[in-house]
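Input sequence (274 aa), recorded before submission:
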Amino acid sequence: MNCAEFSSLKHAHADGELDLIRSLEVEEHLSACPGCSGERDNVQIAKTVIKTPGMYFQAPHHLKARIRGELGLEGARTNRAPWWRLTGLRLAIPAACALVAVALVLLGLTWNSREKQLVREVVASHVRSMMVDHKTDVASSDQHTVKPWFIGKLDFAPPVVDLAGRGYPLAGGRLDYVQNRPVAALVYQRRKHFINLFVWPAPYDAAFSERIAEVDGFNLVRWTRAGMEFWAVSDLNKSELGEFARLVVGNDPVEADGNQENKGGNTNPGTGLK
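Predicted structure, token format:
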């Protein structure tokens, strides 16, 4: 399959309308073509935006009945509706379209351009790791095995915490590639759900509140801490994924050291996670 063929099939693929053979051909092409993978991610994000609650106008029953009557689908009336009713309907349709367009623009402003690209990349990396069963390069529940494994492979040391006692056991780690650089992907479990925690140096040393998003059925939580940027991605529900993020922060050795240093009553700078 080439890029032109994928372009003609991307919407059918996103909607699950391709047969098994064609779907496998598409997936094989996507695994080797970053450009088409980006197109696929854009389609998935657009589908998620369209499905967002509040994007739909629920027409009242009397309006539905009137429209169906005008179309002759059911209960068609002998006499045409008064002109002012038809005029109101014609005016309502463009108005509804305008409201949808405004909502799309406002939703698009929720994430800046850099963040949108990151959302696409981390979700795509998470999905690939699940599809090809390549969740880890080093499979271990021992943080003292996983953390040293990254030495010499990355130009930073990712924080690795043990959350088995809180119901989020460590499964291992692997190298991944986000924002044109190698990053650490730490893999945790919650029952039968897997969480990919992507970690790399933040572009600026600042802490901010977590951002939560949902893309094509996957939930994401993002935060920064001690000069590192974190992205947690999973099909786990938002509540538990948020709990996982707070546990990572609370068990961060940097956080623990900061608490010790601030026993005199000073406020310890946090991540903004609530």
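Checked by second reader. The chain has three domains: 3-51, 61-108, 113-120+132-261.
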